[in-house]
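#data-curation
PF: Archiving a pair of folding outputs for the training set. Convention for this channel: one message per protein, sequence first, C-alpha cells after, nothing in between. First:
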Amino acid sequence: MSGDARVTALRVLISVRERHAWADAGLKAQLARDGLSGPDAALATRLTYGVLQNQFLLDFWIDAFCTQKTAHLQPPLAEILRLGVYQIVFLDRIPDSAAVNESVNLARLFGRPKAAGLVNAVLRKASANKAALPEVPKDDPLRYLSIAYSHPKWLVKRLISLLGPGEAEAYLKADNGTVPTTVQINPLRTTEEQLCAELHAAGVDAAPHSWVPGCLELSGTGNLAELPAFREGRFFVQDAAAALTVLAARPESGMRVLDVCAAPGGKSFAAAAAMRDQGSVLSCDLYPGKLRLVEEGSARLGLTCIRTAQADAAKPRPDWAGSADLVLADVPCSGLGIIRKKPEIRYKRPGSLTALPVLQTEILDSAAESVRPGGVLLYSTCTILPEENQQLTDAFLARHPDFHREKFTLPQPVGETDGQITLWPHKNGTDGFYICRMRRA
C-alpha cells in the first residue's frame, strides 16, 4: 500500500506543477480517488508537503548526483527524484532500498521506462552519501537561505529587508515546520473542556491554544470531517490569526455585520458565535459554489443569523450604503503569511502579485461605503507585505478622512495595539496576518 501513497503524492505534485492546483485541495481529492486512508494517506500527505517544502534543497542534492540538471529533466522525472531523495534523507522509517525501488517503479508507471536506470543510479548515490550530503555554500547568504529553506531569492530578499537576516531565517524555518491544525470552538454547542474530552476519546490529541482563547490545537486528526464533533457542529477549522481578527472586530449581539469576502466562512461563523447568534451576518462571495460552503457550515454549526449573497466585493452596492455596524474585509492577497500551510505559494511569480493592491484598494473603498456612521471597518490579509497591509490602509485613510484607526487589545503576549498589527509565524505561532481596525466618524 505504501506504493499507492507514492503514486498519490506524485499525482498531486504533477497537478500542482502543471495545473497550479492547491496541494491541500488536490491531495484531499486524490486521496479519495485513490481510496487511501490511515497510514497510507498520512504517508502520501507527508511526501507531498515534504517535497514542496524542500524542493530547492532536494534539487541541489539531485544536481550533485545527476548528469542532467533537475530543471532540464523531462516531467515527471524531477518529481520522482525529489520524492525518492526526500524519503532517503528525511524519512527514517522507510528503508533506502524501498525508496529506490518504488521510485524506479514510478518512472515505469508514469511513462518513463527508459529513465528507470537514471532514477536508480541517482537515488543509489544519494543513499550512499546521505551521511555526508553536499552542503549549501554559505558564501552568498541570499543563495544559501534560498536553497536551504527552499524559498525563491526574491522572497528571501524581501524578508531580509523587512526583518533582517536572523529573523528572516527564523521565518523561513517556521514556513517549513510542522503546523498543528487549529480549530475554533462553537460556544453555542460545547465548551473547551467538553470538546477536549470528546476529541481525546476519539483518539485526537487536542489542547487549548497557548494564548488565543476559544481555539484548540489538534494533532493526529485523520479526517476531521468524520468526527462526530465536527459533523454535529461543535467546532470549525480556523487559524488562530483569523480568530484574532474577529476578536479585534468585537462583534456584539444584535449587530448588523457584513462579511464582504466571506468564503469559506470562518470569520462569519466566529462573528455569529460571538454574537450568540443574535443579530445578522451577511456573508458575501463572488462565486455561488463558495457560498454553498458558507451555507453548509452555518447549518452544521446551527448558526441561524447568517445569510449569504452573491456579490462582487470590489463593486459598491448602493442598497447597502451605511447599513452595517461592522464590515469585515478579509481581502484576496498574496498569501505569503500561510506558506507553512500552503507551501506551493512560495513558488508564485512575483509579477503575478503586482495587481493585488489595486484589487484590495477597490474592495476596501467599496466596503467602506457600507459602514454606518460610527461603525467599524475591519481590514485583514494573510500576508506580511507592507504594500498589501499598512501602506494600503495608510492610503485608504488619506482618501477617507471620515475613518481613523482605532486601538484594539488582543490577548497577551500581544496586548494593546495602535489600531493595526502584523502577526508573524516565527514570533506569534500563528499564520502571517495583518489586522487593521478603523472606525467611521
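PF: Second:
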Amino acid sequence: MYVLLPYEKIKNKKLKKIIVIGAGFSGLAAATTLASAGHDVTLLEKNLTPGGRARQFKSDGFTFDMGPSWYWMPEVFDQYFEKFGKSVSQYYNLVRLNPSYTVCFGKDDFVNIPASFKELLSLFESLEIGSAAKLERFLDEAAYKYKVGMEEYVWKPGLSITEFFDAKVIKSAFKLQMFSSISKQIRSLFKNPKIIQLLEFPVLFLGATPQDTPALYSLMNYADLKLGTWYPEGGMFKIIEAMVSLASEKGVKFKYNHEVTNINVIAGKIESVDTSQFSIACDYVIAGADYHHIEQKVISKEYRQYNESYWDKRKMAPSSLLFYLGLDKKMPGIHHHTLFFDTDFDLHAKEIYKDPQWPSNPLFYMCAPSVTDSTISPDGHENMFLLMPLAPGIEDTAELREQYFGLLLKRVKEQCGLDLKRHIVYKRSYCINDFKSDYNAFKGNAYGLANTLDQTAILKPTIKSKKISNMYFTGQLTVPGPGVPPSIISGQMVASEVIKSIANHGK
C-alpha cells in the first residue's frame, strides 16, 4: 500500500512540483536546471546511488568507474557548471592525457596518439606521405561541423521540422555533410589502413558502421584530436558527485532505491507517480530513465506513443561485455586507454550492426586509469577494465562471458606481453543482462539509440509526450543522442522546454 506524500501548494502558480526519474547525467542536468529556476524538484532513482551508467563501486581497495571512461568535449562540462555560477575546478581536477590513447594494430605494433597537434601531424605524415596536410584540411572542416553542431543542432529539441526552416541551418546542412558517410569522406583523403581506422574509431559507439554514419560526425575527430582526451582525478564518478552536489545546493531532493512502478494519468495529464516506496503528486514528469521501459512498462497502454514494433525497428548503439579487474602489480608499458584494432574492424562492426551475434574475433578496449591516478587502487596495484562492444539483445550467459574473457586475456598477452591472468586479485563481469537489470535498458544496450541519418533530430523518439500533456523524456534514447556531453545537453534542453510550458500555461 502506497503512502501519498502531501502535495505542498506553491504560492507562485508559475512554480511547479516536478518529478525527474533517473539520476544519470541527463536527469541530474534537468533536475538542477529546474530547481535553479525555483521549482520544487524531486529526483527518483531506482538504484542505491546516483550516476546511472556512470555509477561507481569499490571493492578490495579498488575504485571502479562502471561506465564512461572518456572525457571529451570539456567545454560542455565547463558551460554546464558556469551556467550556475560555478567552475569545474571547484569540484575536480582535470588532467589532459598524453598520449591521448594507444592503438594496438598487432604484436609490437602500437601507435600512440599524442596530445600535441604538431606531433600528431608528424605521426600521420610518417604513416602516409602528404597526410599531414590532408589531416589539417579534414580537421578544419570538422571544426566547422563541431561549432555548428554543438552550438545549433544539438540544442534543437526535435519537436517540429520547422526548427530546421532557417536559412542558416539549411545552408549549413550541406556543408555539414549530413547526406554522405564518414567512411566515404575519410577514404577520399587517406589510403593508409591505420589512419582510416584511427579516424573511423570514434563513431564505432554511435550505433552504425562508418559506412552508415553521416560525415557530420567527423566532429568527433575534432573533439578527439584537437580538444583532447582528459581525466578527472578520482575517476569519472567525480563528475556525478559534482552534479549531485550542485543539484542539492539548488534544492533538488533525492530519493534513492525508489523505482518508479506506475505513472497515474487522468484525462491526458499526470496526477502522481508511484514508486516502490510511496506515491507522490506532481505537475510535471521528466523521465531520464530508459525511454522504452517507461513507455512500455510504466505508462498504461492508452498513453503510449510507440508500440513494440516501433521499438524493435530502432537501430541501437552497442551493448558491452566488461570485466573490472584488480591486479596485484603494476603493468609495465601500458597507457590509460588502449584500443585493440589487431583484427578485422569491418567484421566486428558487421557482427554488431548488420548480423547481430557474439563476435568472431572482436576488437576491444583496455582502460587502466590507475596509470594516471594512484588513488583508485592499493599501492603497487593496477586498476583496469576490459570492454568488448557487443550487439544488444543477444544471448548473455556466464559461459559466454568466460569464453570471451579467456580470449581477451590471450590477446593482451600475445600483443602486449602482459600476463594479466596471473595477477588478478579482483574480477567482476558486466554485460547485457546486467544493463537490463540495473537500468531497465532496452535490449541491454549500453550506449542508447544509434546516431544514423534516419534517427536524427525529429526522427528520434520525441522529448515531449504526444499523449500526456505534462510528460517529457531525456537521455540517450532521445535528442541529441548517446554520450556524456549529449546527455548533459539533453537534460538542460528538456528542462528549458518544461520552463517554457510553465510560462505559457501560467499566463
